[in-house]
Specification:
- There is one protein chain.
- The chain is α/β, with parallel strands linked by helices.
- Helices cover 49% and strands 17% of the residues.
- The strands form two sheets. The protein has a seven-stranded parallel β-sheet with strand order 3-2-1-4-5-6-7, with helices on both faces.
- The protein is globular, with a radius of gyration of 20 Å.
- The chain starts with a strand and ends with a helix.
């Protein structure tokens, strides 16, 4: 069969690539075409457009690049229409993907699957109307979404397990922890590592990276600061904020960095969940310009009390979230110090991680999602 997949950022690229591999195991003759990233291409998909060309976030950046985004949407619609896949599989990225779903449902008979459902429980709840109309099967990776969609909106959804837990478990099984090899290979010394995960988009990096560095700089005599560089972001972009602080920039090694880290500063997103599954205490950082206005809007318009997946899954605050004007250098540093060995918050956070992992379960999400898709087709 022929499958068309669309993912719009690094985490979606990873999840979609694992789903491609799972589909191939169950449908060895499968063909794939995608809007996505390097991992999807490596898994066997023909890459039509890389997500880096369309990954803009925030009102102003989207407005500035509206022509590029709209052109990408038009080209994607046309490519799907010409290729006529047996299934369209959307991976998160709702602003783009819901437009594609609407077109495909209105102009073709191709079934539409949504893997990693839109987070309408946080904002834009009105999208449930579009989901009802345009999505044939909604596949969830977050256990609390089942009650939200089925009880509140009476829309059927299937929790297939969490792919990040599967991906981290597979990595740990095939990469035994070896700190000396890790440091020697990457030109590091024997000091413990503090990981910096500053996001995958330029806007996120611009707003968060410099503050992360400032917060961790006083610890650089005792700890090594290691940045997990995002795909598609060159070293020059990061270097403008480094100054005199020694930060080692590593590429394509996010899991290796987390596996060997003592603590982390993490921009909200899938990275918060990855960090928790590697049992690395973290501070969630998400600075936004016009912070006071954003904080006010968050209190009045956001439908959930947390922004990090760790806290959302646990249903309580396991990790500290410093958001908008709440992300100050001093507060980041204070929380980070409490999470280092001997810190008062470290043990409690690690216990919370285990509680969260138990809620996720141990289902192999890509395999179950592939079964659902094939069964429906």
């Amino acid at each position: 069969m022929k499958y068309y997949l669309i993912a719009g950022e690094a985490s979606g690229d990873l999840h979609a690539s694992c789903l491609i591999q799972a589909l191939l195991r169950q449908d060895p003759q499968a063909e794939f075409r995608c809007y996505g990233g390097d991992l999807m291409q490596a898994a066997g998909a023909t890459l039509v457009c890389h997500y880096r060309h369309l990954a803009y976030m925030g009102f102003i950046p989207v407005l500035m690049h509206a022509r590029t985004i709209l052109r990408g949407i038009r080209q994607c619609k046309e490519d799907i229409r010409l290729w006529q896949p047996d299934a369209l599989i959307l991976v998160d990225y709702p602003g783009f993907n819901m437009r594609i779903a609407k077109y495909v449902k209105a102009h073709t008979s191709i079934p539409v699957f949504y893997y990693i459902s839109p987070k309408i429980w946080a904002w834009k709840e009105y999208r449930i109307r579009d989901i009802r109309r345009d999505v044939d099967r909604l596949l969830s990776i977050l256990p609390f979404e089942v009650a939200y969609f089925e009880q509140k909106h009476h829309y059927p959804i299937r929790y297939v397990g969490n792919p990040t837990r599967s991906e981290v478990s597979r990595y740990q099984a095939t990469h035994p922890r070896d700190f000396q090899t890790f440091t020697r290979t990457n030109g590091l010394d024997e000091r413990p590592v503090i990981a910096l995960l500053a996001g995958s988009r330029r806007q996120e990096i611009r707003d968060n990276f410099s503050r992360m560095i400032q917060a961790a700089a006083p610890l650089s005599d005792r700890y090594q600061l290691v940045l997990a560089a995002a795909p598609g972001i060159d070293d020059a972009y990061y270097s403008q904020w480094l100054g005199d602080v020694p930060v080692r920039v590593l590429r394509d090694q996010t899991y290796a960095i987390l596996q060997h880290s003592t603590a982390a500063l993490v921009t909200s997103g899938t990275a918060t969940l990855e960090t928790a599954l590697f049992q690395v205490p973290q501070v969630v950082c998400y600075y936004i310009r016009a912070g006071r206005l954003v904080s006010w809007a968050r209190r009045h318009f956001l439908h959930v009390p947390y922004i990090s997946l760790v806290n959302l899954i646990a249903g309580r605050q396991v990790v500290p979230e410093l958001v908008a004007d709440g992300m100050t250098v001093q507060d980041v540093r204070t929380h980070l110090l409490s999470l280092l060995p001997g810190g008062e918050a470290r043990t409690l956070q690690l216990e919370g991680y285990q509680e969260m992992a138990n809620l996720l379960g141990d289902t192999e999400a890509p395999e179950l999602a592939a079964q659902e898709i094939l069964s429906y087709i």
